[in-house]
């Protein structure tokens, strides 16, 4: 067979282990923070990670997804990975989050830039970014609460 015709198979799956009525419903940034903190890895104060909550139209959590894990001062966030997960799960909304191992609760210039980029990408795909939280064990910063989500 000619190798010109050989292609890889693509498989898209999402398997929920939680009944829709048992999924937590996001009602505030604090609720998002509590869910994120509960599902975060044990390296919250060690390395920076970027995670997302994926939500359905009723703001019920479809899943928690780790987008990337980096070093002590940053992690790479690829918009294609964020939206591939959202599209796979047929999410209507997403909550972005990352931790600051330093414990600082103020967004960096890079944090603001990636938030704007992902909000814009979400608008193109009809997937609304509800919030972006900076997480520490002692508190959080909410872009939505601070009026920074457009």
Tags for this model:
single chain, 150 residues, alpha+beta, Cytidine Deaminase, domain 2, five-stranded mixed beta sheet, 24% strand
Ordered list of secondary-structure elements with their pairings:
Layout: H1 29-39, E1 49-55, E2 61-69, H2 79-88, E3 93-99, H3 109-125, E4 128-136, E5 139-142
Parallel strand pairs: 3-4
Antiparallel strand pairs: 1-2, 1-3, 4-5
Give me the CATH superfamily. Cytidine Deaminase, domain 2
Question: In this structure, how is the largest beta sheet organized?
Answer: 5 strands, mixed
Shape-level CATH architecture? 3-Layer(aba) Sandwich
Strand order of the largest sheet: 2-1-3-4-5
Explain this structure to me?
The protein is of the alpha+beta class and 150 residues long. It has helices at 29-39, 79-88, 109-125; strands spanning 49-55, 61-69, 93-99, 128-136, 139-142. The protein has a single domain (31-70, 77-142), classed as Cytidine Deaminase, domain 2, CATH 3.40.140. It has three helices and five strands, in the order αββαβαββ. The mean pLDDT is 92.
